[in-house]
Specification:
Number of helices: 4
Largest sheet: 6 strands, antiparallel, barrel
CATH class of the largest domain: Mainly Beta
Order of helices and strands: HEEEEEHHHEEEEEEEEEEEEE
Strand content: 35-45%
Strand order of the largest sheet: 2-8-11-10-9-12
Structural class: alpha+beta
Number of strands: 18
Helix content: 10-25%
Radius of gyration: 44 Å
Distance between the termini: 81 Å
Number of domains: 4
Shape: elongated
CATH superfamily of the largest domain: Efflux pump adaptor protein, beta barrel domain
Oligomer: single chain
């Protein structure tokens, strides 16, 4: 009897425990179709939309070109005797850079000087002989002097003298302007390479930066406008300059070539260096939002505006852009973004219209 009572009590405890557990699960909504739980608000961050001048920024890639440069050639083909400079040297205009072996040219020049002096003496003798028996002023008009210059050999000696001077001067290479020597590869006691410059001379204290701009943007640029640029190899070093020339032609790619002058203030810029060019402008009366605020919904641009705990989407069009912001306009009535509106910039990628959000201002 006692054993039967024990078994009966155990069965009652099991049934009670099962009933309690089922009741607890039902209370927390674990039964299908009886869930009453509510999703937590999505955490988002944002900024305030502003109104005013939109800072445009045109970005282009360019290349540095020395403002003055020249390829220097010897005009004769003789052995190089002296080289007075090396690559990287700064020289003043008129400096002798190199000379060829020119002893024979110097002798020819001296001979030409002697022949010219002899011819001049002969011409003077002819003039004196022609006028010795004449009274009054000597007959030295232009026609007569031309005759005496030819008959005495003076004219021919004079031309030979000029030729000898040129031959001698062509063995001496001088700097046509002040600049830096580059691309000097020839050694002494060698002939200059046929068809190749002996060296090049550049003024690298001021560089031209040449870059393309879309024809749709060229109307915003003008000669004298400021630009900034940085070399590809130095992200944090910027140089400032001014537009010096706008080529009035559009190429087959719809681009216009623009040239600006940039001082090489620290001497770190190099001929042919690749650079990135930045040009700033502004457009008045724009609603401005961060780029992160604009997302796509149904292939349309949307900005979520925070209002009373909810994210309200607004269809917009972007008019202008720079590296960080857009200027926007509404595309549907009643969905304007106004100055002072709170715009969601973080956490907006998967938001739905009227989604409940927990908002805080961005730390940017």
């Amino acid at each position: 009897m006692k054993n039967h009572l024990t078994i009966l009590l155990s069965l009652l405890l099991v049934i009670a425990s099962s009933s309690c557990k089922q009741k607890t699960e039902t209370e927390f909504g674990n039964e299908l179709g009886k869930t009453d739980s509510k999703a937590d608000p999505i955490h988002v961050e944002g900024e305030i939309a502003t109104f005013g001048d939109f800072p445009l920024e045109f970005v282009s890639n360019g290349k540095l070109n020395a403002s003055s440069q020249a390829e220097l050639y010897f005009k004769k083909n003789q052995l190089i005797e002296n080289i007075n400079v090396k690559n990287g040297d700064w020289v003043e205009g008129g400096t002798v850079l190199a000379t060829m072996e020119n002893q024979l040219d110097l002798i020819n020049l001296e001979q030409a000087e002697i022949r010219l002096e002899s011819a001049n003496i002969e011409r003077e003798n002819q003039v004196i002989g022609h006028t010795a028996n004449q009274k009054g002023k000597l007959d030295e008009n232009d026609q007569a002097m031309n005759y005496f210059s030819l008959s005495s050999g003076f004219r021919e000696a004079e031309l030979n003298m000029k030729k000898a001077q040129l031959d001698y001067q062509n063995t001496i290479l001088t700097a046509p302007f002040s600049g830096r020597v580059i691309d000097l590869d020839t050694k002494i006691q060698n002939l200059p390479t046929s068809g190749e410059p002996f060296c090049r001379l550049i003024n690298d204290r001021v560089f031209e930066v040449i870059f393309p701009i879309l024809e749709s943007e060229i109307g915003r640029l003008k000669v004298g406008q400021s630009i900034s640029m940085r070399p590809f190899i130095a992200d944090s070093v910027f140089y400032r300059g001014k537009i010096s020339e706008i080529n009035p032609a559009v190429d087959e790619h719809g681009l216009v070539k623009v040239t600006a002058l940039v001082p090489n203030s620290d001497g770190e810029l190099l001929q042919g260096m690749n650079v990135k060019v930045f040009i700033k402008d502004k457009v008045s009366n724009c609603v401005i939002v961060p780029k992160e605020a604009v997302v796509l919904r149904n292939n349309q641009q949307v900005v979520f505006k925070y209002s009373e705990g909810k994210a309200m989407w607004n269809y917009v069009g972007t008019v202008h852009e720079n590296s960080t912001h857009y200027s926007v306009i509404p595309v549907k009535a009643g969905q304007e973004i106004l100055e002072g509106d709170t715009i969601i910039t973080i956490g907006n990628l998967n938001l739905a219209h009227e989604a409940e959000v927990k908002f805080r201002m961005s730390n940017k």
